[in-house]
């Protein structure tokens, strides 16, 4: 009799265990279904966003090219500025030398229009 009761209790325990296992598996199935639905929605939204991301990528590349161009322009302007300063210093030195030579001879052999051409060339160099 004790064996029969023990077997019956074990059978009931197994049935209860199976019921809880089934409930757990059903709950896990519902969770996986929700995850599948969420992933499907996410995939659809990603497909909608893809053209915008392509546009952003193209815009980024264009901005990078523009920045590279601006960097080259900046470097060129900096280099020209250095060169202009050197040229100006050299021109000032030559002008001072020529002025001292002219004052030594105390004769002005160049016509007035030549002076204006020199002034115009100097202004042009500075503006450039």
From TrEMBL:
Pfam families: DUF948 (PF06103). The chain crosses the membrane at residues 6-26. This is DUF948 domain-containing protein. Residues 93-109 have a biased composition (Low complexity). It comes from the Bacteria. Residues 79-88 have a biased composition (Basic residues). Keywords: Membrane, Transmembrane, Transmembrane helix. Residues 78-109 are annotated as: Disordered. The lineage of its organism: Bacteria, Bacillati, Bacillota, Bacilli, Bacillales.
